[in-house]
């Protein structure tokens, strides 16, 4: 039989539906793969063997009863440890939530279960999703399957590494400033940040509520679309959830075509700091889009230059408020509760012990930016920049259907290289952040390997809000053309673990 861990999600579901393999066999093959390689990769913080096999058996039972199975029934998935899972630990990569077992499922978790998706476990991440390398996890770093001494991106590095090492065909990420797209870019996988409000945030631990967005991660554009459709749609439990039909992402992914589309290349996403090989592959992708029949033009979004600065005021401000709930009284860790300390002291001792350095840095920055007297100068100004960025998008989307850029300025950097330099770390999200600030949609998909280091390069496609289907239409066309050119999917180039 073909190796069950090498199939796409769409192939896996078809194999199960046809009875060529059971969902239990598929789950077991992935659990075995995790057992064989995850000691090296460290993609998972928690593997839910029992839960996965139970979910797989339920799919097999439904099939035996002749019930119709959904498009992802029996397909294994790696879930970022930021979504609550009833009865299964949820740490958000932080010591402060170590040992916490949620009593409820996030809406996204529930939808996955309802779709018959088999959740294998929870994946490693930067603490509270703050980071671009997964080195900020309280539980140790994750390795990039292309080179285990390099970062798999962040904050969702566990999810991207699980995909690239064939431990799961599907994964979930969250993207506040790039944490789905940047990990996808540096691991040769596909990641989509849906339109803000497109996927429910209920039960997704909040970092920066006006920016956070859960979304699909996969090895192919079609798989990402199938997962997108399963998790998206209105949720009355999330007041920012969009009450409108989900854009037709699966149909778009099945009909990749860029003929007649107008595509804008963002002028500002190039120049100093961009690795030569990244630009080589990106420029080839632009050429390919032309060959495929798109009308490619250069566009300028001058406000994007201020996006990073605005983001690093808005995100810390919101996190300083969101993380106030970790007060030692409600969840997880409690330090100093020995009768000699006041409640306030217990809160302070717990936060001092439970939060890592990056989380503390952001809580302090955010508290300062929001303090009276500074609010207008910092937070208020950042919100004005946010409006300018949104206007830049609106203006260029008047003339083009989608925008393209490199997803990240460089390929995967070595673990440790930027760990003590927050600014260098923040630069990894230069091209992804404007989309979060404006609330529209974007995808990263592989566009080859950088000649100088042989590591994956990501192509970012950006669409207007609620036009997520355009990402898939363009992405599927690019993926098909590149796969034909390379003769195989890019991940076949990755060294075997
Ligand atoms: N790297 C960015 C940050 O550190 C984005 C993180 C994210 O998208 N969750 O905030």
Topology overview:
Blueprint: H1 9-17, H2 23-41, E1 44-47, H3 49-64, E2 76-80, H4 107-114, E3 118-123, H5 157-164, E4 170-174, H6 181-187, E5 190-193, E6 214-218, H7 221-231, H8 249-254, E7 262-266, H9 276-291, E8 295-299, H10 307-322, H11 343-354, H12 357-370, H13 376-397, E9 402-406, H14 422-426, H15 433-438, E10 441-449, E11 456-463, H16 468-486
Helix pairs in contact: 2-3, 10-12, 10-13
The protein binds glutamine.
The site of glutamine has 13 residues, from loops.
Question: Which features does this protein show?
Answer:
single chain, ligase, Amidase signature (AS) enzymes, nucleotide-binding, eleven-stranded mixed sheet, binds glutamine, 16 helices, 11 strands, alpha/beta, Amidase_dom, 497 residues
Q: What would you note in describing this structure?
A:
Helices cover 39% and strands 12% of the residues. By secondary structure, it is α/β, with parallel strands linked by helices. It has a single domain, classed as Amidase signature (AS) enzymes (Alpha-Beta Complex). Strands 1-3-2-4-6-5-10-11-9-7-8 form an eleven-stranded mixed beta sheet, with helices on both faces. Helix 2 (23-41) packs antiparallel against helix 3 and helix 10 (307-322) packs across helix 13 (376-397). The protein binds glutamine. Glutamine binds next to loops. It catalyses: L-glutamyl-tRNA(Gln) + L-glutamine + ATP + H2O = L-glutaminyl-tRNA(Gln) + L-glutamate + ADP + phosphate + H(+). Heterotrimer of A, B and C subunits. Its EC number is 6.3.5.7. Keywords: ATP-binding, Ligase, Nucleotide-binding, Protein biosynthesis.
